[in-house]
Amino acid sequence: MSETHPQHTAERVRDAMFANDRAVRGLGMEVEAIGPGRADIAMTVREDMLNGHDICHGGFISTLADSAFAYACNSYNEVTVASGFGIDFVAPARHGDRLVARCVEVSKTGRTGVYDAEVLNQRGERIAVFRGRSYTIKGKPVVAA
């Protein structure tokens, strides 16, 4: 596979980002899949992630979805940041649940992009839906060519 192959580029970006991504690693997240404009990231709900209702705090679910969004929109090897996102919680996540955020590109035009993600538990039940908006910093690669 050549250096310019889109899948290879996405994998190189994943490796570089993960090596420096203290938040993702600290929360025990794993990048399960990566490709041009898409990423799947998983996380197991730990006891220290539970809120006062004994369910996963929404901030952790948001962080999982936002992380999948970050890997998806940076997969082209251009530094890309979030310009905003929205998330809707549709079911609770509980201690021990294995959550997967699956993010896909909806639109990428010029410097802006739109990405959708869904967060599912180990039974395939939808926990949250997410839409992220991105802004690409042109001419700044994530990893050197």
Q: Averaging pLDDT over every residue, what do you get?
A: 96
Number of strands: 6
The CATH homologous superfamily is named: Hotdog Thioesterase
User: How does the helix and strand content classify structurally?
Assistant: alpha+beta
Secondary-structure arrangement, i.e. CATH architecture: Roll
Oligomeric state of the chains present here: single chain
Largest beta sheet, briefly? 6 strands, antiparallel
Q: Which descriptor suits the 3D outline?
A: globular
Rounded Rg: 15 Å
What is the first-to-last residue Cα distance? 14 Å
User: What is the helix fraction of residues, given as a range?
Assistant: 25-40%
How many domains, in number, for the residues?
1
Report low-confidence residues grouped into runs of 5 or more.
none
* Percentage of residues in strands: 35-45%
Identify the CATH class.
Alpha Beta
How many distinct helices? 3
What order do the helices and strands follow? Answer: HHEEHEEEE
What is the CATH topology classification name?
Thiol Ester Dehydrase, Chain A
Strand order of the largest sheet: 1-2-4-5-6-3
Could you provide a short overview of the structure?
By secondary structure, the chain is of the alpha+beta class. Helices cover 26% and strands 38% of the residues. The protein has one domain (6-136): Hotdog Thioesterase (Thiol Ester Dehydrase, Chain A, Roll).
